[in-house]
Amino acid sequence: MLFRRFLFTPSKITNDILQLPTHELLQQLGYVKQASSGVLHWLPLGLKTLRNIEGIIRRRMDESGAHEVSLSSLSQRSLWETTGRWSNTELFKLKDAKKKDYCLVPTCEEEITWLMNSYLTSYKDLPIIAYQITRKYRDELRPRGGLLRGREFLMKDAYSFHLNSEDAVSTFERVNATYDKIFTDIGVPFVSAVADSGDIGGDLSKEYHFIHESGEDTLFRCNSCEAVSNIEKCGSYPVESKEYLGDVSVKYALNEENDTLVCLYYPASRHLNWNLALEAVDNDLEPQTRYMTNEEVLAKFTENYDPMFNGIIRVMDVRLNSRSNFPDFPLKSYLKNNFAQLNDYSIVDVEEGEICAQCEEGELESAKSIEVGHTFYLGKKYSKALNATFRQQDNSDVVMEMGCYGIGVSRLIGAIAQVTRDPKGLRWPSSVSPYKVSVCASDKSVDQLNKVKALLDYKPYTDFDAKTSIGAKIQQSHALGIPIAIVVGPKSWPNVEIEVRGNFRSKNWETSYEKLHSQLGWEYNQESGKHFVLHENANDVVNILLKDL
Ligand SMILES: [Zn+2]
């Protein structure tokens, strides 16, 4: 007796299903099932898709020389206290029977640094990069539907360890090259947004996005130098130097030593950009002062204020000029020698159509996007806190440099589904599709169906309800997003029909068609977009088409 196969996917796909938001569509079609808010179970189709994406990532990471590991999901409190991250409210915390604290890891800088530090001793052991593809946890207060932001998710995280910053930065570049290959293999158009502080002591980071109107992120792209940046990192200049006569807002902050007051001035109609402000002052801002009110910052600064020793820095957004309407300066006494003014910095969020600060020529255009990957040069942020050192040639101990690199694997499935779906349902690229091909046969064509199945290189999807019509089977195959459907019916036999559901990334198949169509008995009907071929040759045609899908 055969096991029942079509348990999770409805045999009839209705229009109501096809109009659902993507996270519900994935549930209705039998990819995943929501267990509770932000928590999903993976069903056979979803798991196959997940495995395909993991396979692409694993192949490219292994090829780059990274070592695969798999760390425990449980992590002890002490490590997180050392790095100051135990207080993070999104950390999933739990206690064992002896009341000892643990968390379910959201990321593994702490554990991997501890792990590697117990093996890495000499400069000869470096550089090294380790990665894993494991479940991660985040105690989201308001998890979003489905795969894009869950409380449990699958992530590929990689960590690299280095002798010095030059080596760490060159590995950062190499991992980005690997990411380009991974996202090219996946086959969905992507952009990488560069964020370079320009200072080796600062943080280098790069994000990978799919452009889509439903995205939560906003990217800006320069129409001249083509640089792409997240709004959080996008410097801009006003279109023309207009006299800004409007009100000026100020945000007070302190430097890291807490001995200098930093006054950030910007047009009141605009939104201050903390990252750009950081760049203006060489990253020397006390992070906490970002969230303090101006009164609180001033109170802290004036506690022990001494005009002889304490400095004041005024940072002016490029849009301001001396005729702008500035607020009163709060301190009456200060020494000219301890006072500095930085002019013409861009410290507000960019607006559509402003000038690119990188090339100073192009206009910046915005696009909504979904972030799917992120790479960071970390410097010594974690290795210093966790005292991860190695011994140099001269026998002195030095703190390692680090980088970390993430790809949201389960998030990628949600993102790919979202950006490729259309009114007929999902539309996977063949690289990730749970099946590359389906065979839809009428119930009178069982022998022919088996003949075609036996000829194919790829195991086809055939888990249809036998009682449904051939049209319903084709519709189901299309809704599931399978790139190619082979239709087997008594009328056309010994020919079969091939319907392409996928999105052509290239049209190389047309050259093959010119060369091979008479030899293979392959006819392409331009009007219907369908292919007809002798069933013995269906596998050849499927393989030719799949290369473009
Ligand atoms: Zn530009």
Automatic annotation (TrEMBL):
InterPro entries: aa-tRNA-synt_IIb, aa-tRNA-synth_II, aa-tRNA-synth_II/BPL/LPL, Anticodon-bd_dom_sf, Pro-tRNA-ligase_IIa, Pro-tRNA-synth_IIa_bac-type, Pro-tRNA_synthetase
Protein name: proline--tRNA ligase
Signal peptide per UniProt: none
Aminoacyl-transfer RNA synthetases class-II family profile domain boundaries: 16-429
PANTHER family, A to Z: MITOCHONDRIAL RIBOSOME PROTEIN L39/PROLYL-TRNA LIGASE FAMILY MEMBER, PROLINE--TRNA LIGASE
Catalyzed chemical reaction(s): tRNA(Pro) + L-proline + ATP = L-prolyl-tRNA(Pro) + AMP + diphosphate
A GO term, aspect molecular function: ATP binding
Keywords: Aminoacyl-tRNA synthetase, ATP-binding, Ligase, Nucleotide-binding, Protein biosynthesis
A GO cellular-component term linked to this record: mitochondrion
The enzyme's E.C. designation: 6.1.1.15
Name of the top EC class for this enzyme: ligase
GO biological process assignments: prolyl-tRNA aminoacylation
Similarity section: Belongs to the class-II aminoacyl-tRNA synthetase family.
